[in-house]
Amino acid sequence: MKTDILNRLKYSLGKDAENASTYDWRIAVSLVLRDQMVETWFQSTKETYEASPKRVYYLSMEFLIGRLIEDMISNLRMEDTVKAAIAELGQDYNTIVHDEPDAALGNGGLGRLAACFMDSLATLGIPAFGYGIRYEHGLFEQSFAQGQQVEKPETWLTQRHAWEFERPEARYRIGFGGHVEHHEGKAHWHPGEVVMATAHDTPVVGWKGEWGNTLRLWSAEPAKEFDLESFNRGDYLAAGRSEALARTISRVLYPDDTTESGKELRLKQEYFFTAASLMDLLRRYLKDHDDIRALPDYVAIQLNDTHPAIAGPELVRILVDEHAIPMDEAIPLARKCLAYTNHTLLPEALERWSEHLMGRILPRHLEIIRAIEHAHQTEFPDSPRILEHGDVRMGELAFIMTHKVNGVSALHTELVKETVFADLHRIHPTRIINQTNGITPRRWLYGCNPSLRHLITDTIGEDWVADLEQLTALKSKRDDAAFIEAFTASKRENKVNLSNWISETMGVTLDPDAMFDVQIKRIHEYKRQLMNLLETVALWNDMRDNPNADWTPRVKIFGGKAAPGYFVAKDIIRLINDVAHVINTDPVTDDKLKIVYPPNYNVTMAERLIPAADLSEQISTAGKEASGTGNMKFALNGALTIGTLDGANVEIRDHVGSENFFLFGLTAQEVMERRTHHGYSRAAIEASPRLQRVLGQIAEGRFAPHDPSRYHGLVGMLYDHDYFLVTCDFDSYFDTQRRADTAYRNPANWAAMALVNTASMGWFSSDRTIKGYARDIWGAKSVTQAKLEKSA
Ligand code: 26W
User: Fold this and answer.
1) What is the atom index within ligand 1 of the atom nearest the CA of 62?
2) Domain tally, the chain
3) What's the sign of the alpha-carbon dihedral 60, 64, 69, 72?
4) Which residues carry this modification: N6-(pyridoxal phosphate)lysine (predicted)?
């Protein structure tokens, strides 16, 4: 290993050990690891061609990968080797691994789920490709100026991305605009603009490096060469215009995670990567198969939300226009290959493109969408329409063009059947199924929590990493004092590490014995960070009213970005920082209550915060959080959840036991019912003196003395438009927080409850989720499993 690293330093970076920077060492180590992975990767690719199994294609606009170096090291089982080599080379392991920028090619839950799924597909030995966009700039970098969010372009690619291989041979022409000509019943699309899609492959090797899949990300490049004439004429801008235009398509990730932008560039991004991916997988299929009608037997395409839903019309276009399959055969043929996952019920997140824009950017596809609509309407006359009020509804298109639609938690799937797709569900009663989300235990326990990982492995061996349900064996340890002590020590070690990091980076001193209460996720009104903050101010008031009472010290940790155009969310961020400033400088509560909000929350920060958490905030308005996955990560790392009966919280509580979960709030049914009551928020406020007092303080500028009216809007909204029922759930939330305070005062019992959480989270492994997709949707098999069975 040592020699390999020095060779890479020399021959790939042109550096010797004396002059190498941390960056050089990191790239050298990464390239050596990549060499290791290539063996497995090639072997897997070879075996796949030989076995010609069904392949899975996961199409996603987002892959929220984070850092890869530690994940690669642990999956290849090379920690000790790498650590020893780096030490012998006189370098510091942590300095090198922490130098890697996050690959932040996603907004939040949907993007991170795609990354966890890629790890599970490889670990399970299921042949798969992830297809997405190689954004030059991922999710913006967040900083705070006077407590307000400021966005800066993210720059991960200004450095060499060590893990990828450019694939110039996998290059496709992607057309936009233009017009369609029809001759003798055949359609010919003549695009007005063409860009090139070039593939960049990152090998994805699973646990123990037994199988390797590919994450293929597309970047946009100009189709035609540099315009030398314009240049020679001195019109330099014109010379670079087509290049700049082309590159724009893969330039930046849209930072919205709940509101569709409706922007032309976004539609072009969606079609760009979807079309390149379909061309690529069909080229691969036709290399070994000549009957396009057998495609559904060898290809399963999963649409990660509606963002790649244009795949339906695009596949039909290819079948009809390039393979002369009749339209009424092409539509069902395409449907058999496609499946769609819905991740949200929020109306503003359901994509709808104007027919006008679709007709201008993708004229042939609009024709095909009309044909799809006609075929479906003919068969089901009272079916909801794809084309409505001049819009193309991508949810309806995805539903009608796929053979399976799944929700991401049991509650969410029921709500999908009862609300957004109620009418289509009546027509296709077996199409909607559930696949409750999961998380990869490799990153979210083995990788991010070494002290707990070692304790578990020392207790039950290491097979849990690829068979997480084995954690249930730990339940028997809840009355084992020595084990509980070690379990508690692990949590405290993580809290001390976090306290050191917070004091280094934010200059705030935390008491590691206080309860670490953490809410980290995108800022959104339905996730109710505001309710958390209102409870914090109410607690502060009580502490100041009664400073000598026996308070449970509490540290409130917030993390999360707001979409740049989401002003209410930005106001909430500002209020959290304004309140933190006042409370953190209050001598009365100095040793009882602190609020910290580290800027630029991302995957790497989640890996730092989650192992140190005692309490996990999953407090969304019931019926709004499709699943949540942070909730699973916290419980797996021994945090107790305070939460509503929303998304996967319901199933987490079923698995850990209601006695090990702090439940509060209205149910989804009750939320819908309460909304019918006029003035429900004013009534709730009038019924809660505690809430009234807090809202009064905020409205009068207690936390913004130089701008007292700063939060009039926010408080006014709670009085009159409290759409997410913060006011109605406040008191039960406050009381439940006090129950948590009391419980925390009994450390042994708290640790026992936390242990039961960890031990009960096996089912929430993304390995279980992927097995569900493979069984119920894709009909895909594990090649490694098949090999094992054959050799047995
Ligand atoms: C068009 C703009 C846009 C972009 C992203 C709209 C919606 C999205 C995503 C669907 C939002 C998202 O990340 N949803 C989250 O998906 C997770 C994975 O299934 C769930 O666990 C979360 O509950 C859900 O909010």
Assistant:
1) 5
2) 3
3) negative
4) 633
Cα–Cα–Cα angle for 780, 786, 790, rounded to 5 degrees = 155
111 and 89 belong to one structural domain:
no
Q: Which of 116, 302, 343 to mutate to test the pocket of ligand 1 (most atoms within 8 A of CB)?
A: 343
Which residue segment(s) compose the domain that 723 sits in? 441-762
Cβ of 112 less than 6 Å from ligand 1: no
pLDDT tens digits, one per residue of 682-717 = 999 999 999 999 999 999 999 999 999 999 999 999
- Residue 510 Cα to ligand 1 midpoint, Å, equals 33
Interval between CA 274 and ligand 1 midpoint (Å): 19
The per-residue pLDDT for range 495-543, each reduced to its tens digit, is: 999 999 999 999 999 999 999 999 999 999 999 999 999 999 999 999 9
Look at residue 190 and give its three-state secondary structure: strand
pLDDT of residue 560: 98
In this structure, the answer to whether residues 691 and 704 fall within a common structural domain is yes
Distance 256 CA to ligand 1 centre (A): 10
Q: What is the pTM of this model?
A: 0.98
Q: Which of 258, 444, 644, 764 to mutate to test the pocket of ligand 1 (most atoms within 8 A of CB)?
A: 258
Please tell me the predicted confidence (pLDDT) of residue 743: 98
Q: Which pLDDT score is estimated for 242?
A: 82
In a domain, 213, yes or no: yes
Instruction: Say how many CA atoms lie within 13 Å of 173 toward its Cβ.
Output: 8
Examine the domain organization and report whether 397 and 458 are in the same domain. no
Calpha distance 201→37 (Å, rounded): 13
Distance (Å) of CA 89 to CA 5, 20, 94: 9, 11, 14
Q: 406 and 479, same structural domain?
A: no
One domain for residues 366 and 478: no
Q: Point out the residues of the chain with pLDDT beneath 50.
A: none
- Within 8 A by CB and 6+ apart from 304, the residues are 58, 59, 60, 61, 62, 110, 113, 114, 341, 343
Tell me the CA–centroid distance for residue 651 and ligand 1, in Å.
Answer: 19
Residue 155 lies in a domain: no
If asked whether residues 384 and 446 sit together in one domain, one would say no
> What is the CATH classification number for the domain harbouring 395?
3.40.50.2000
